[in-house]
Amino acid sequence: MELSGYSRLTGSAYLATGVRMHYVDTGRGEDTLVLVHGFPQTSWQWRHVLEPLADAGYRVIAPDYRGAGNSSRPRNDHGHPADLRAATTLPRGGYTKWEMAEDIHQLLHDHLGLTDPAFVLGHDIGSMVATAYAFRYRDATRALGYGEASQPGTTWFDRMKASPTEWHFSFHNVLDLPELLVTGRERLYLQYFYDRHAARPTAVDADVYVKAY
Q1: What is the torsion angle, in degrees rounded to the nearest 10, for the CA atoms of residue 102, residue 66, residue 182 and residue 42?
Q2: Low-confidence residues of the chain, pLDDT below 70?
Q3: In contact, 137 and 106? CB cutoff 8 Å
Q4: At what angle do helices 97-105 and 125-136 cross, to 10 degrees?
Q5: Residue 155 CB: number of other CB atoms within 10 A?
Q6: C-alpha dihedral, 141 to 147 to 152 to 155, nearest 10°
Q7: Among 27, 47, 145, 147, which residue's CB has the most CB atoms within a 10 Å radius?
Q8: Is residue 64 within 8 Å of 20, Cβ to Cβ?
Q9: Separation in Å, CA 144 to CA 32, 39, 134, 149
Q10: Are strands 8-14 and 20-26 parallel, antiparallel or unpaired?
């Protein structure tokens, strides 16, 4: 992501949550804008708007949330199949929006040294993370914006996720099977979403996302 006229930092932060979070940080504005990507993308989805937003006077920070892009899995997801017969709690998890919001807060305030509240903008699943951030860290949030997603806890969300057209919500909640079926078929799987949801599927940089996932 080359940005003319601005120092651009692409780095990784090792957070107290146990996550190694990849991020892009650019612009010199006093107002900070945090961009949280959706599924099935990474922070790369923001590449065309980073420079215009920096030109508009923002410091722009775009992370890969946990488990996506160049960020690591949470430490309580070991990447191994879970035993449904186990007597104890299944050893998987760490992907609640509340936990994902904590990563972003630690990135901003503990790693990057932010002291003022930030504008937080989320897209798709990232909008749910952004909303969780605004609720959990109200004093650290100047304003919240989101698009292309309904919010958990609303009647619309419950109706939407139960719709046959949004089958992937239920599919992704099945333990282990989605990974088994998608592995080696990432391009076919992800392209389905781009073809179905994108206004211009050919404009999506599918190669980057396929490699990431």
Answers
A1: 110
A2: 1-8, 78, 80-92
A3: no
A4: 70
A5: 8
A6: 130
A7: 27
A8: no
A9: 12, 19, 7, 14
A10: antiparallel
d(CA 93, CA 106): 19
Please report where in the chains the tokens 């619309």 appear, as a residue: 156
Give the pair of three-digit tokens for residue 205: 């940089």
Per-residue model confidence (pLDDT) at position 175:
84
28, 68, 96, 168 from 172: Cα distances, Å: 39, 15, 14, 6
Spatial distance between the Cα atoms of 48 and 59, rounded to a whole number of angstroms: 15
Whole-number Cα distances in Å, 25 to 17, 58, 63, 189, 191: 20, 11, 9, 30, 29
Nearest 5 degrees, angle CA 209-CA 182-CA 157?
Answer: 75
Dist. CA 97–CA 185, nearest whole Å? 27
> What pLDDT is attached to residue 5?
57
Q: What is the DSSP letter of 182?
A: H
Q: What is the reported pLDDT for 93?
A: 78
3-state secondary structure of 23: strand
Residue with tokens 């599918």: 206
List strands edge to edge, sheet with 31-36: 8-14, 20-26, 58-63, 31-36, 118-123, 141-147
Q: Which residues pair with 78 in a beta bridge?
A: none
Angstrom distance (rounded) from CA 144 to CA 187: 33
